């Protein structure tokens, strides 16, 4: 399974930036390429559902040919999150706040549209939904770029009033990590927050006390393909990452997430979600919890697992929804 956002950012790494660079002469400022003039105008913000292709059919649990199953007695059968989050478009990359009341997710209306066009549609990006009386609201766009400038944002992680997100945006070559601050009722003050060259851009998770950073990378020294790595913060500086050998294999092990109390590490492998428990400060051999086509876990303090489920037919991805497996 290729998770939606990863595909988008790989494409966007070249296509989005090429679309602006083709018409502009870059300048340099502190080593970061800057564009001298705008090449393309972004349309006004629109209701995300208006951009879903006409004729798109919403897949439901009843019509899903490969519904996710649970392989642990700890959880109820997974279901789509109740409310208005899911559409016939693609909802992906969920992040649930520890208190279980705020859900962030990535949305794009049509997975068949390339990233260089998605960035112009006025709706692709990060959204936030609130839980009210057990139902999730439709969600509002989280704007993380200056008016009139291009950006494709995703893989969000929120801790308190700080959001980490990866972005391919005008004025920068490639994909970068940024942070934004929540002030006066909105996210603002976004800045480049890259770690170092060995910390690949993608999903990350920082422990609740802020001392450990988990991420996935195919850097040398791993077991093969993507591995889970952890960097520890010492004197306010992230140290050289170490391989979390207890959970990694020669397959792709990625998209890590911690339970808020830090006692469980979840990650995606082979179309499913795996869980490793911490015993005496050591990660134990992981076990498969949810599969197939389940990925990118995020947990609240109650232990409920939010994740993305992709819908496929004839090896083609049609859409994606946010699901939840409630802790018993």
How would you describe this protein?
There is one protein chain. This protein has 328 residues and is mostly beta strands. It has one domain: Neuraminidase. It is built from 2 helices and 26 strands. Strands 3, 19, 20, 21, 22 and 23 form a 6-stranded antiparallel β-sheet that branches. Strands 5, 6, 7, 8 and 9 form a 5-stranded antiparallel β-sheet that branches. A hairpin with a 2-residue loop joins strand 10 and strand 11. The chain is globular.
- The general outline is globular
Strand content: 35-45%
What string gives the helices and strands in order? HEEEEEEHEEEEEEEEEEEEEEEEEEEE
User: Which CATH top level class fits?
Assistant: Mainly Beta
Helical element count?
2
Question: pLDDT under 50 segments (min length 5)?
Answer: 1-42
Helix content: under 10%
**CATH topology (fold) name:** Neuraminidase
Structural class: mainly beta
Structural domain tally: 1
According to DSSP, the number of beta strands is 26
CATH architecture: 6 Propeller
As a whole number of angstroms, the C-alpha radius of gyration is 19 Å
Taking all residues together, what is the mean pLDDT?
A: 86
For the largest beta-sheet, the strand count, sense and barrel status come to: 6 strands, antiparallel
Distance between the termini: 28 Å
């Amino acid at each position: 399974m290729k998770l939606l956002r990863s595909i988008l950012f790989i494409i966007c790494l070249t296509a989005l930036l090429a679309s602006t660079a083709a018409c502009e002469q870059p300048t340099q400022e502190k080593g970061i390429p800057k564009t001298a003039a705008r090449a393309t105008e972004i349309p006004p913000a629109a209701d995300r559902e208006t951009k879903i292709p006409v004729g798109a059919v919403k897949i439901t649990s009843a019509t899903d040919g490969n519904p996710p199953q649970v392989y642990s007695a700890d959880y109820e059968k997974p279901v789509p999150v109740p409310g208005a989050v899911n559409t016939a478009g693609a909802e992906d990359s969920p992040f649930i706040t520890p208190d279980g009341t705020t859900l962030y997710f990535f949305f794009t209306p049509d997975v068949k549209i390339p990233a260089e066009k998605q960035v112009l549609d006025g709706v692709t990006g990060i959204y936030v939904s609130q839980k009210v009386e057990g139902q999730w609201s439709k969600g509002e766009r989280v704007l993380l770029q200056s008016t009139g400038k291009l950006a494709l944002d995703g893989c969000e992680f929120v801790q308190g009033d700080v959001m980490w997100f990866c972005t391919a945006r005008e004025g920068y070559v490639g994909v970068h990590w940024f942070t934004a601050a929540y002030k006066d009722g909105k996210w603002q003050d976004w800045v480049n927050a890259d770690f170092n060259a060995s910390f690949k851009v993608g999903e990350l998770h920082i422990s609740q006390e802020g001392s450990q950073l988990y991420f996935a990378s195919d850097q040398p020294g791993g077991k093969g393909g993507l591995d889970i790595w952890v960097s520890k913060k010492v004197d306010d500086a992230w140290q050289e990452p170490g391989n979390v050998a207890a959970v990694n294999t020669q397959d792709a092990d990625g998209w890590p997430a911690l339970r808020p109390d830090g006692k469980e590490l979840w990650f995606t492998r082979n179309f499913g979600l795996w869980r490793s428990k911490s015993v005496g400060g050591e990660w134990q051999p992981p076990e498969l919890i949810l599969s197939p086509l389940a990925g990118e876990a995020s947990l609240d303090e109650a232990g409920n697992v939010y994740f993305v489920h992709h819908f496929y037919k004839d090896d083609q991805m049609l859409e994606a929804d946010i699901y939840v497996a409630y802790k018993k």
